[in-house]
Each structure stands twice: as C-alpha cells, then as structure tokens.
Amino acid sequence: MRALVAVANTGSIHEAARTLHVTQPAVTRALRDLETEVGLMLIVRSSTGVSLTHEGRALLQRAELIVNEMTRTEAEMTRLRDTRQGRVSIGVTPLSAITVLPKAYNRFRQTMPDVTLEFSEFSASQLVEQLKSGALDFALGSGVDAREFATVRAVHLATFPMWFSVARRGQLANATSLADLQDAEWLHTAPSSEFQAFLTELFARQGLAPPRRITRCASQTLFYSLAVNSNVVTSWTHLALRTEGAAEELKTLDLLEQPPARKLFLLFRDSAILTAPAEYFVRCIEDAVKAEQGTRGARAGKAS
C-alpha cells in the first residue's frame, strides 16, 4: 500500500523508492505482490514514467486512508512510549482561526509542548476531501449549516453573528445608504453562490441592482489586508472586530442588516479513531468555545 501511494504521488518507481528509503526492486516487488493479491493490474509503465490503471486509482483512495491511519497508529505507539509526543494535523477554515483556535492552541501547548502540530487552511469541500483521505486528524469548518459537510461527521460548536465593515479611514466609511455601496467591491470568504444570493436579495428589497464586483478570498491574511487597505466591504464576527488592530482599522456598517450567521463545526471522518493528543486538542477547543460563550453572555447581561 505504501508503495502504491508513493508511486501515485511521484509517478516514478525510482522516486517512490527514494521516498520510501528502499531499493527500486523492493518497490517493484511490493507492487507485483499487491497486484497478485488483488488479482488486478494496478500500474502501467511507459516512457514517461508510471501511471495507475482505473483499478489502481480506485484502490489508491483506500490505500491513502490505510497508510495515513498506519502512520498515525505508529505515531500513537511512539507517543505511548514517549509520553506527550506525537503529531496532530488539523484542517481549518478562516472563521476558526479568528475565533476559538488561538485560545485552544495556547491551552494545548501548556500541557503538550512537544507534540508536532500542523494547521492547513482549506475550503469546506477541500476539508471533506482531506478528512476522507485520512490526511487530517480532524477539522474546524464553518458554514451556514451542516449540509456543506454532509459526508463527514459534523458536530456544531457555536454560531457567530456577522457584521459588514469597511476600512475606517477609507472612502466607504462615509456611506449612509445601501446605494452608496452599489459600486463597491464586496469581499467574502463564504461559498460564492450563497453570498451572491444574499446580496441580490438585500439590494432588490431597496429596488437596486446587486453589486457587480463580488470577490471570494480564501486567505485570511489577504482578506484582512484588503479589508483595511482597500475600498471593499467585508464581513466579520465581533470576536474579530473587537481585537485591538481591527477595532482601530475597521468600522461596522450599522446601516446594513447583518449577513447570515456562520456556524462553526468540529469535523471528523466517520469511524475515525483520534490519537490522544488529537483528542486533547478537541477538548481544548470545546473548552475555548464554552469560555467564549460565557464571556458573550456576561457582556450581554451588562448591556441589558
């Protein structure tokens, strides 16, 4: 299985052998044994390298999952020998990075300072693909509802109201009506069709055509940079807006109704078995959510 995955990733017996730190004959023999065991031809050799047959590509999906699970199992056994070591791979969407993840990370690090962590930012559909292949231990994904993650296990963590904002020192900061924003560029991180439909309805209720420039940005860093340095309309949670830098740079547009709230989900592959460090990180996230909800409740009580 490792040989099949390595050949698929590199397209070469030679490169696969180098990746696996074995000889080329060992890789060839492993692939031949695998073909004999399943009774199907899995690879085809050509002058340009090695490619997978249709049957090989079908098996590859299972092989990637098996190899990733075995790698994770080996890491867990190593961790049991060497306490509080291991590796956790977490997929995220932008909302998680600006809400609960930083606090969860800090708590996790206090207890497990030697665990190797890897955070990867993906779209909702990419998170699902990465989870199903076993490349991620778990993920934090955001959406309007759980239907975006229908093929994996989704656990609702929290719902975050959203507000539109503009650069505090930009031209759009003086807008007094929706018509003033018709020619603006609207920057968002949500699925394009969902956001487009919301804006179309919002403008139509005031007898206006929807804005022509609606841009999706999957990078949180670029999203923030454009929000504070360009004449764009963006949407944020209050958690993001009340940070020191954002509070100075961004202004909420109270003249607009709020965009759809975003829900944060913990995502797992069905039947996934988490390692101890991954389980602990999940608990840290759940505790961070409870703490934030408590803080929001206390602020709401004072306001009332």
Verbal overview:
This is HTH lysR-type domain-containing protein. InterPro entries: HTH-type_LysR_regulators, LysR_HTH_N, LysR_subst-bd, WH-like_DNA-bd_sf, WH_DNA-bd_sf. It comes from Pandoraea norimbergensis. Residues 1-53 form the HTH lysR-type domain. Belongs to the LysR transcriptional regulatory family. Helices cover 48% and strands 21% of the residues. It is of the alpha/beta class and 304 residues long. Helix 2 packs across helix 3 (24-38). The strands form three sheets. It has a five-stranded mixed β-sheet with strand order 4-3-5-12-6, with helices on both faces. It has a five-stranded mixed β-sheet with strand order 9-8-10-7-11. The protein has a two-stranded antiparallel ribbon with strand order 1-2. A hairpin with a 2-residue loop joins strand 1 and strand 2. It has twelve helices and twelve strands.
Overall residue-averaged pLDDT value: 85
Give the fraction of residues assigned to helices.
40-55%
Structural class based on helices, strands and sheet pairing = alpha/beta
Number of strands: 12
- The geometry reads as elongated
Tally of helical segments: 12
Largest sheet: 5 strands, mixed
- The radius of gyration is 24 Å
Order of helices and strands: HHHEEHEHHEHEEEEHEHEHHEEH
Strand order in space, largest sheet? 4-3-5-12-6
Q: Percent of residues in beta strands?
A: 15-25%
pLDDT under 50 segments (min length 5)?
Answer: none
Distance between the termini: 61 Å
